[in-house]
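> tool_call: predict_assembly(chains=two)
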Amino acid sequence: MNVLIIDPDDARAALVAEGIRMDEVHQAATIHHWPRFELAQWLEINPDMVIIACESPDRDTLDALQVANEQAPRPVAMFVDRSDANTTAQALEAGVAAYIVDGYAPNRIASILTVAAHRFNLMQTLRSDLSKAKADLAARKTIDRAKGILMTSRGINEDEAYKLMRKHAMDSGRPIAAVAADILSIADLLKTGGV
Amino acid sequence: MLSLRIGFSPLNDAALIVVAEALGTYAAEGLDVSLSRESNWSNIRDKLSYGLLDAAHVLATMPLARGLGLGPTLGQIVAPMALGANGNSVVVSSRLKAVFEDHGASTLIATARALRLVIQNRRAASDAKVTLAIPFTYSPHHFVLRHWLAAAGIDPDRQVQWVVLPPSRMADHLRDGVIDGFCSGSPWPQMAELNGDGVVLFSDPAFWTLKPEKLLGVRGVWAEENPDGVIALTRALLRAAQWASDPANSTDLAEILSRKAYVGAPLEAIQAALGEGGAGLVLDPQTTTFPWISHAKWFMGQFVRWGLTTGDHDFDAIARKVYRPDLWREAASGLELNVPEADEKDEGGQTAPWSLPARPEPILMPANALFDGGVFRSVAS
């Protein structure tokens, strides 16, 4: 079994490859990754199955191989799962589609596509967790700096400074990080003497 | 508010879909629309199949291919309107363009004849075949190129190498000599020319003055469940067309299209495509949005001509299942639009503006002629 993953996102492709290899049934599979479609190299790889990210602009090039040509003599067809599980629909929702070459082993295709869809969802979760963590960290830094400014300018302790900001945030109905950002920008304005 | 998701491909001819959002005409018709900018046509096809989209900007040939049983077909797509006419251009390498100029070839027939000589010379020298790129197998682009080549006696199946490429990669392949030319929706051809990667050889109007191109494709199940929604959606887009076809709004139209969330291309290229001598996109609701059954039949005739399907289909039934002039008529009433009396007309042969029977007033139609003088008549008159 020869699987080609076409995905401009290298990290996600690696995650999918790892997921496929974790399943004992597919341990013998050879997995290739292309960030973009290379028709000239198609026969060198001669895949039995292709997993492609829906966001890849090259999907139409792959899809067109349903009409076999000189460079791809074996016809390629999108895998459409008509069972109740409807793997195809779930995968599309996750942003991935599968193609089979020459009608290769459709029952195994479904399980690989399921793995790919899970991995695409996992990547999405990891990415959103990461960006949330980054935003949280940035917010905490802003709050800490604003606390410091309040402590110095009003001669209060850390706890009092935080409570002051929190009260202001609640009264104005805004996130505490936004209040802290305001304090920083105003402090900056006062420090440079204004313009 | 009725919520729905509409997909589009980042091209100038998605204008009505994006303008309706920018101007708020969806909301004015009681629709809560979220747009989805898609990277390829296969996504649009499949998302419509599986209900991840309710409607989309589609190549006119896509729902027809589905009707003919081509590709991974699931469910029905209906088209209450066309999204304008024209908008594509054919781009060739500067080298090929120079050959055409050496032959003094400027018309479509003359350039096709000159290309025939290029093909013969390359064959004699055992060079690679002339290679042309299209964005999708079942596309008007494909049919336009084939029709043009065949006019000079070139056999598009044996004498030309075809490759499907995303428009975003066409100019690179042309510059690198991997392909000799391509046909794509705007503004890609104009960007290729501005970047010096190729030369626009001709645009849609030179092939067919009022060439059908994109449709509003609506998922059949959604249309059945939301009969008022389909009409509201069509009305919102017809209103967008009334605004977009007003020359007074041309600067604003180009600016809206160039936004990152929409076409996301340089304003200069978008303006080059929309302006005089550009890709000829026409967005007039009165003359370019009616879903003519004769357009559907012309396209299906091309599927048969090029061996993509057989001739034993009930083409009239397929055309009428997909193209829905009845929905256009219902949506257009109350928008000060005249309503065509017939569902079909002759395609081609009208070299000057002409009067189309319609209610309450006849419609003054622009010329409707193909470069080779051909006339396609789908009904006996």
